[in-house]
Specification:
Elements lengths: L1 H4 L4 H15 L4 E2 L5 H14 L2 E6 L1 H6 L7 H14 L4 H5 L6 H17 L6 H9 L3 E6 L5 H5 L6 E3 L2 E8 L7 E3 L1 H11 L2 E2 L5 E2 L25 E5 L9 H17 L4 E6 L10 H10 L4 E6 L5 E2 L6 E5 L2 H7 L1
Parallel strand pairs: 2-3, 2-10, 3-4, 10-11, 11-13
Antiparallel strand pairs: 1-12, 5-6, 5-9, 7-8
């Protein structure tokens, strides 16, 4: 892949930029300037004036869209697993050491279906798309739920750095490909007893319990060599960066290179402290380095920026859905 795409690796470049920001910054932070309403107006003006917008989205953005991993959604689809094993959220269930592969993939079929193939309850992604669809934009995200494409964002302007719930990869490290899993997920959901409603959505049956395992013959296997499959989610160095991933990384690098001297807005939404070196720190550093760049941060209880760029930053604490709706 390095030979094919050369050195234009946007993922490596953005992490390198983030690490530079960490080394060079004294980490004195600011919540920006002005009242909340003034900040909204400043963000609106920055969006209107920008030649280009780089959107960086984290897990908080999907939370604002209603993709919560506990509460009502968990109880509706995973109450049987919760009752049996004692966990109270989907995330914990994804790491549980199930005794059989049939039960493991039963859980993950549900997990993938509701977090990848169902639309989010809220329309925050649609709101953002309406704000930037006529702009020259690019999206980098650590989210793996496909919500940007569902909302209409151009696939060629998206970089999913950490994978996709809709993709499998082989456990064989020599197979550097990913495989769509939608048809497998639907078969595995049906095998558990889920029932398709009038809108085509699979729901838990009212009159009977769901099965907590799938048939052995449904266990996912690689179509190339018959090896076991796993999720295409970055957790260690076995994560497959396939040709599409590298193409998106290259496109991101090229977008930044072409716009660094223009009026560019780095719009960060819902990025917490889990993986700040992928989006948050690079956005800070590029705002500092690019002469006409601005930075905006929308986040719940974590809206801040370095002192060095506060004069070119807008930090709004609160629900990003409410902020975008007001714009």
């Amino acid at each position: 892949m390095k030979s094919y795409y050369g050195n234009n690796n946007g993922y490596q470049e953005t992490i390198r930029s983030g690490l530079d920001a960490l080394r060079k910054s004294d980490m004195k932070i600011s919540s920006g300037q002005g009242t909340r309403e003034q900040k909204k107006q400043a963000l609106k003006a920055a969006l209107e004036e920008a030649d280009a917008v780089v959107i960086g989205a984290g897990a908080g953005f999907s939370t604002a869209a209603g993709f919560t991993y506990s509460g009502e959604r968990f109880e509706k689809y995973f109450s049987d697993f919760g009752k049996k094993y004692g966990f109270k959220d989907m995330y914990s269930g994804g790491f549980y050491p199930y005794s059989t592969k049939e039960e493991f993939w039963c859980y993950w079929a549900r997990y993938i279906y509701i977090n990848r193939y169902l639309d989010p309850p809220g329309d925050v992604y649609d709101q953002l798309y309406r704000l930037v669809k006529d702009k020259d934009y690019f999206v980098i995200t650590t989210n793996v739920d496909h919500c940007f494409q569902k909302a209409g964002f151009d696939k060629k302007r998206l970089f999913y750095t950490q994978g996709d719930y809709g993709l499998f990869q082989s456990v064989n490290p020599e197979i550097c490909q990913t495989f769509d899993n939608e048809q497998w997920v639907l078969k595995a959901i049906e095998a558990q007893g889920f029932v398709r409603n009038a809108d085509g959505i699979y729901e838990p049956p009212i009159d009977k319990e769901l099965l907590m395992k799938i048939p052995t013959e449904l266990l996912p296997v690689c179509p190339i060599d018959g090896s076991e499959m796993t999720m295409n989610l970055r957790s260690d160095d076995s994560f497959v960066e396939d040709e599409g991933w590298h193409r998106a990384s290259c496109a991101y690098y090229d977008f930044l290179r072409r716009h660094e001297r223009l009026n560019i807005l780095f719009l960060e939404i819902g990025v917490g402290s889990n993986t700040p070196v992928i989006i948050k720190y690079p956005f800070w550093q590029m705002t500092k380095d690019f002469p006409d760049a601005k930075y905006a941060c929308l986040n719940y209880n974590e809206a801040y920026c370095p002192e060095q760029i506060k004069d070119r930053s807008v930090c709004i604490d609160g629900d990003s859905a409410e902020v975008l709706r007001s714009l």
